Amino acid sequence: MTVPTIVLNNGVSIPQLGFGVYQIDPDETKDATLAALEIGYRHIDTAQMYGNEAGVGEAVRASGLDRAEVFVTSKLNNAFHAHDDAIKAFDESLERLGFDQLDLFLIHWPLPGIDVDFVETWKALEEIYRSGRAKSIGVSNFQPSHLRRLIQDTEIVPAVNQIEVHPYLTQDEVRSVNSEHGVATEAWSPIAQGMVLDDHAITGIAAEQGKTVAQVVLRWHIQRGDIVFPKSVTRSRIEENFDLFDFELSEGDMGLITALDKGHRTGPDPDRFNYIP
What we know:
By secondary structure, this protein is of the alpha/beta class. The protein has helices spanning 26-39, 53-63, 83-97, 118-131, 144-153, 172-180, 200-209, 213-224, 235-242, 251-258; strands spanning 5-7, 13-15, 19-20, 43-45, 71-76, 104-107, 137-140, 160-164, 184-188, 227-228.
């Protein structure tokens, strides 16, 4: 099964479907990631804050795949937004992963209320990008105001903006601003932490398609153009989440799911979230 790719604004290609390791215990990360790679995933999403980068690196090496075949993303911990701290933290990520280069490195949160401005942080990522140690750089959880200011005050446009997106939070405004600036949208919490799995509109579509509700929601993301990376530690669920490319949702089904938007977040509001671990 061939996973479609999206070409980022710097010419780098990213698989549209990946495997996320958020909230996977560090002791389980290697095995879960290795299972995903065996099933066919070639895109892994981790973060410094998750504490499991080492397991991702171990899995990539244990898979026997060439490093160039696996697209790996990590994200900057909120405690390291100062310029020199960001560069040091990035180097430590490479060390934990056991890589010479990351495919994508993101500012995890904009943290609008802290003393260190995210523009300063981004300039550190620009240096990392120019050094070749990251093939692409981007942001996560940036609102339109954050993104516009970053683009105005710096030189490199982010390759992606990773935001919470699901049928109850369609994020049409953020996605539109991303598109306007050539920034790809990555969707975290794509099934709203399971909240949408009992929605009658989606269960009806799933029954008609002969697919699970999760598969229908992930397919909705794919057809919208979102990059998704569902997570699981169960091999059967990892396989199920990969089985998205033998069916298609109609325009009517897509519209029905999109109309479920409630503006409901399962995670923090980026305009107010200033957590430093």
